[in-house]
Amino acid sequence: FARFMTTRKYPDLELITDKHKLPWQLALARGEQLAWHPASRCAAITPNVRVDQAPGQTLLAVDGEIYPATFRLASLLSEHQQFSQQDMAKLSTEETTLVDQLVDQGSLQIIDGTKE
Q1: Cβ neighbours of residue 27 under 8 Å, at least 6 residues apart?
Q2: What is the pLDDT along the chain (116 residues), one digit of tens a residue?
Q3: Nearest CA to 80 among 114, 48, 34?
């Protein structure tokens, strides 16, 4: 269901990937922001956990694909459209790797931080 619900909408809006652009961490340090591409969709899949159970795996559905994610990152990405340096400042290496992948595939893009 999550794959279907997060399938990219508006197929005429092409996801553009440009691996020669400034790394997103440096762009955020310059005051720019990360934002979801208008065609991208995202949803956090968090397990229902009872007190007597071990924590389950949190997943992030993005553009019809499922990725393992921390609860913190899945919540952040699924609850907001834009992300500043402050939002991304305390990401772990695992979390940064997933954000790198989402930027590389065009799901997240760098935008001018002064635009709303």
Answers
A1: 21, 34, 110
A2: 666 676 777 666 665 655 546 789 999 999 999 999 988 999 998 876 555 555 568 899 999 999 999 999 999 999 999 999 999 999 999 999 999 999 999 999 999 866 54
A3: 34
Q: Which residues pair with 34 in a beta bridge?
A: 83, 110
**Per-residue CA distances from 21 to 17, 27, 38 (Å):** 9, 9, 19
Rounded to 5°, angle at Cα 83 from 88 and 98: 55
C-beta separation of 60 from 101 below 8 A = no
What is the pTM assigned to this prediction?
0.79
Among positive and negative, which fits the CA dihedral 16, 28, 88, 20?
Answer: positive
Rounded-to-integer distance, Cα 112 and Cα 101, Å: 20
